[in-house]
Amino acid sequence: MNVLEITNLSKLYKNKKAVENIEFVLKEKKCTALLGPNGAGKTTTLNMIAGLLSPTTGGIRSPLLNEKQDLRTMIGFLPQYPSFYGWMSGKEYMMFAGEVCGLTKKEAETRTGSLLQLVGLEEAKNRRINQYSGGMKQRLGIAQALIHKPKLILLDEPVSALDPFGRREVLELMKRLKEETTILFSTHILNDAEEISDYVLFMNEGKLIESGSLKEVRDRNTEKMFKLQFSQSASTFAPLFSQYEINIYEDTMVMNIQDDERAKNDVFQIVLRENLPLLKFEQSNPSLEDIFMKVVKK
């Protein structure tokens, strides 16, 4: 089921299009990464979905709501640079956020307890926020975004400013959260997206240039490749692999292929039949960053 549907969404600033005619859907209880370099339009897109910016054109709707219901009631949002009242404790801040969202004091207290436990801040709930580490503040921010049980949470660069330990804490939390709710998060760190996302959206210069599940994006953009390293010059054996597109780099042969399983069988049959001095065989598996760079250059 779709939780959110975006159609022809654009944002214009003084004749400059920050976001240009993007379309995508968010699936229920799936994690989607909005990827792109700084200035690609990621934050503008999230701010429009969160209701902090009005689109110039386009639509943002949820099949879960009727036309009279406010979309913002089903969204939790953590901005890139969240602000906290440092003099409050984590528990006080969560209670405050719950009451702002319209929860009763009892409801806010119940949600505060369960969420602080979920994000690993139960033992620090009575400490002032100004004593929290960066990772703890981000986890508190995520807990705040969940206080009203949203169907969708938006996280803008949730780990970009954190040290490796804090980054790992937040990523592990996001893995747990996607079992309960839908997540859309922006990042320019593609390794993070590769680790936790079900779907990816590639943005560049305000445009959506690629989208789909991780598998779909890989299948569309991956050039399958074998690398064969021999104990002598690879050019000696090139005629044996004339049916493939190959490049020779001293003792290494790089082979571009279409059907990887069939090609693998053929290659090993040739190696065994001709008793070739093969030292090493590698099958390439390009990273999401490799794919992104390729798509941007198109």
Which key phrases capture this entry?
298 residues, alpha/beta, Rossmann fold, Alpha-Beta Plaits, 2 domains, six-stranded mixed β-sheet, four-stranded antiparallel β-sheet, 9 helices, elongated
Contiguous runs where pLDDT drops below 50 for at least 5 residues: none
Hey, roughly how much beta strand do the residues contain? Answer: 25-35%
CATH domain fold name of the largest domain: Rossmann fold
Q: Spatial order of the strands in the main sheet?
A: 5-6-7-3-8-9
CATH superfamily of the largest domain: P-loop containing nucleotide triphosphate hydrolases
* Rg measurement, Å: 24 Å
Largest sheet: 6 strands, mixed
Percent range of helical residues: 25-40%
Summarize model confidence as the mean pLDDT.
91
Instruction: Estimate the global geometry from the Cα principal axes.
Output: elongated
Tell me briefly what this model is.
The chain is of the alpha/beta class and 298 residues long. It is built from nine helices and 13 strands. The strands form three sheets. Strands 5-6-7-3-8-9 form a six-stranded mixed sheet, with helices on both faces. Strands 11-12-10-13 form a four-stranded antiparallel sheet, covered by helices on one side.
Description:
The protein is an alpha/beta fold. The chain folds into two domains: 2-220, P-loop containing nucleotide triphosphate hydrolases (Rossmann fold, 3-Layer(aba) Sandwich); 223-297, Alpha-Beta Plaits (2-Layer Sandwich), CATH 3.30.70. The chain is 33% helix and 28% strand. The protein is built from nine helices and 13 strands. The chain has helices spanning 42-50, 90-100, 105-118, 134-145, 164-177, 190-196, 214-221, 260-273, 288-297, and strands spanning 2-13, 16-27, 31-35, 57-61, 75-78, 152-156, 182-187, 199-204, 207-213, 225-230, 245-249, 252-256, 278-283. The strands form three sheets. A six-stranded mixed beta sheet has the order 5-6-7-3-8-9, sandwiched between helices. Strands 11-12-10-13 form a four-stranded antiparallel beta sheet, covered by helices on one side. A three-stranded antiparallel beta sheet has the order 2-1-4, with helices on one face. α4 packs parallel to α5. The radius of gyration is 24 Å and the shape is elongated. The model has no long low-confidence stretch (mean pLDDT 91).
